[in-house]
Write a structure and sequence with these properties.
The chain is mainly β. It is 3% helix and 48% strand. The protein has a four-stranded antiparallel β-sheet, with no helix packed on it. The chain has a four-stranded antiparallel β-sheet with strand order 2-3-4-5, with no helix packed on it. A four-stranded antiparallel β-sheet has the order 6-7-8-9, with no helix packed on it.
Length: 416
């Protein structure tokens, strides 16, 4: 077992993080973010559009008093092929030579890029796709799909790897997730899924990667799998945690897959007006952005830089968080294994944890409680179960040694 302890000690030292982020433009509640090769562009809820120079860190604010922008309330900003689109609460605009040119006074809302580089934009109850000439090539009245209600809006959109659109729609006493395959629309709501009948906050995110879709609302973190929505995390079934931190008492507001397949979660208070936390994971355990004793604001949404794959932007209620992923330990396990090679279930568990390896090789394990005490260990373990039924509720560390490799996994034990 000496190798196991040595590997654990190395993991604890090597995975220690410094503050891998900067917070800029504090004082601004950021609604959206995009970038080009020189500037980061930030929409705000009530303070106009901000350009932030990546090199000089100088910034300029565009408002109705100093520019031709139609409103200081920005719903979405998006850079497509060198063209900056700005959607205010009044119109869709394009910035050219420091002037805002109005494209439409009837189209506005959340924006994303289609798989063939057109502009997709969704308002309260209308979805449109515009081509490079800013001509509408597709439109859909969403009122034919969902029940119109007070304060309705599209909160988030994303395309999966198969080209399917996923759209989160919020209204008073109405919460729906819509998907569009290019021909047909499908709606998931309280009548045909576990989705709640409403979400008490408009900060509902949705993200897709490969064939996996995640969505957030006050109910928790939801995962779409095998044509069903499942509860991935909520207060009754917490899974976003490690032995150092958790998001207990907070709501998962923002969610985003980056281009490397890492899932990012921004958690905050229900109205996202106070402090928050940022968690991320790959195939393995959740990690938290180490704030180095600095308070993190609540995150409204995530966006990956189009020009730097190691930069993640987190639009927050108090400025922009610029995350440098190159200094993060994005994989907490020293042993890189095929996701189909090992099975551990259920986690969380009330007692029995099943562990099997695809190759049926024997391995050693140690189960360690939150005080660092080894409460159970075995050598030559093969396709068996670990019984935690007599242990107290809490977070346990499971260390599995296979040959000269190690798997480090957090197990949540709770009593019925």
């Amino acid at each position: 077992m000496r190798l196991l302890f040595a590997l654990l000690l190395c993991a604890q030292i090597c995975n220690s993080q410094t503050a891998c982020f900067d917070i800029v433009l504090s004082g601004y509640n950021v609604s959206s973010v995009t970038d080009d090769n020189q500037f980061i562009w930030l929409g705000t809820y009530n303070n106009g559009l901000i350009s932030y120079d990546k090199i000089t860190e100088d910034f300029q604010i565009y408002t109705t008093s100093n520019s031709t922008i139609s409103s200081n309330s920005i719903k979405s900003v998006l850079n497509i092929n060198g063209r900056l689109y700005v959607s205010t609460d009044l119109s869709l605009m394009q910035l050219s030579n420091d002037n805002f040119q109005e494209i439409s006074t009837t189209i506005q809302g959340v924006m994303t890029t289609t798989p063939n580089d057109n502009l997709a934009i969704a308002a309260q109850y209308e979805f449109n796709i515009l081509n490079a000439s800013n001509q509408i090539i597709y439109t859909q009245d969403l009122q034919t799909l969902v029940t119109p209600s007070c304060c309705g809006m599209t909160t988030s959109m994303d395309y999966d790897d198969n080209g399917n659109l996923w759209l989160s729609n919020y209204a008073f006493y109405e919460y729906d997730i819509l998907t569009f395959d290019g021909i047909n629309w499908n709606v998931y709501d309280v009548t045909n899924s576990i989705l709640p009948i409403e979400s008490f906050n408009f900060l509902n995110g949705i993200t897709a990667h490969s064939d996996i879709v995640y969505a957030t609302n006050w109910y928790g973190l939801l995962k779409f799998e095998n044509d069903n929505w499942l509860i991935e995390h909520n207060e009754n079934t917490p899974t976003i945690f490690n032995d150092m931190d958790n998001i207990s008492g907070l709501v998962a507001n923002a969610v985003k897959f980056d281009s490397q397949g890492y899932l990012w979660i921004g958690a905050g208070e229900p109205e996202n007006t106070g402090d928050g936390k940022i968690a991320f994971k790959g195939q393995n355990d959740w990690e938290f952005l180490d704030n180095n004793s600095q308070t993190l604001p609540g995150v409204n949404l995530f966006e990956e830089s189009q020009y730097d794959s190691e930069t993640i932007y987190a639009a927050s209620n108090d400025g922009l968080i610029i995350i440098n992923t190159s200094c993060l330990s994005l994989s907490t396990n020293d042993y890189e294994y095929d996701s189909n090679a090992v099975t551990m279930y259920p986690n969380p568990t009330t007692g029995i944890l099943n562990i099997t390896f695809k190759n049926n090789k024997p391995f050693a394990f140690q189960l360690i409680n939150s005080f660092g005490q080894v409460v159970q260990s075995k050598a030559n373990f093969l396709n068996q179960t670990i019984d935690l039924s007599t242990y107290a509720s809490g977070v346990y560390t499971l260390l599995i040694q296979l040959d000269d490799k190690i798997i480090n996994t957090k197990i949540l034990k709770f009593n019925k």
